[in-house]
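Review form for a predicted model. The reviewer records the input and the model, then writes brief findings.
Reviewer: anonymous (R2)
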Amino acid sequence: MIGNTAVVTGAGSGLGRAIAGRLAEDGWHVAVNDINPDTAERTAAAIADAGGSATAAVADVTDADAITALALRLDADRPIGALVFNATGPQPNIAFTDTDWGDVDDQLAFFARGPLNLTRTVAP
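Model under review:
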């Protein structure tokens, strides 16, 4: 492994939580990223209870400054060797023809800007 930490975004519940648990089983220290502190803490605690290693890593992936600060803080403690972009946000339940640029920007924040900010911070 390049580093011993895997960052999993959106890991407070659902698929992200399962991915984080599996990575911990495979020996990774998992940075459990979620916007919700309670779910991030619960996932990290569940991993620790199962014998793994995890840290709650609360930050909004759509906030470039917050996710950059998080990545720098995590990498300073333990080198980051893997990124899993699982976070998602509200999905507009509207017809494509009714989509406006605000809807597009919201989706780009989760699926493009968040991963790009995190990767650009960790890659060097």
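Findings: The two ends are 16 Å apart (CA to CA).
Further findings: The chain has a mean pLDDT of 89.
Recommendation: see findings above.
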